[in-house]
Amino acid sequence: MHDAGKYLIIFGIVAIVVGVIIQMGWGTQAFGWIFRLPGDIRIERDNFRFYIPITTCIVFSIILTVIIRLIMMFRNN
Fold first, then answer.
1. Half-sphere exposure of 40 (CA within 13 A, CB side)
2. Which is higher by pLDDT, 47 or 31?
3. What residues contact residue 31 under an 8 Å CB cut-off, 6+ apart?
């Protein structure tokens, strides 16, 4: 159970770093595709914005699943 805490801390640090990169505008070229994938629902009106990132969530889920499975695979060896 101690490993779960360590992984959560690492994930949190990575999330903060990626958030800072995106917020500062440094990742506009590298991360511009995030939240603009085909399948993401976006409705914008004058005073209204509605957004559901369906495809982006699926892509993130696949990426995180692969990373976690690789970590578990190498950890068991």
1. 16
2. 47
3. 18, 21, 22
Same domain? For 61 and 41 the reply is: yes
Average pLDDT, the chain: 81
Mean pLDDT to the nearest integer, 25-47: 77
> Do 28 and 46 fall into the same domain?
no
pLDDT surpasses 60 at 1: no
Q: How far is CA 55 from the centre of its chain?
A: 12
The residue type found at 14 is V
CA dist., res. 67 & res. 64, Å (int): 5
Which residues share a beta bridge with 52?
41
Q: Which of 77, 64, 73, 66 is nearest to 8 (CA)?
A: 64
Domain region containing 7: 1-32
Segment 39-52 shows an average pLDDT of 89
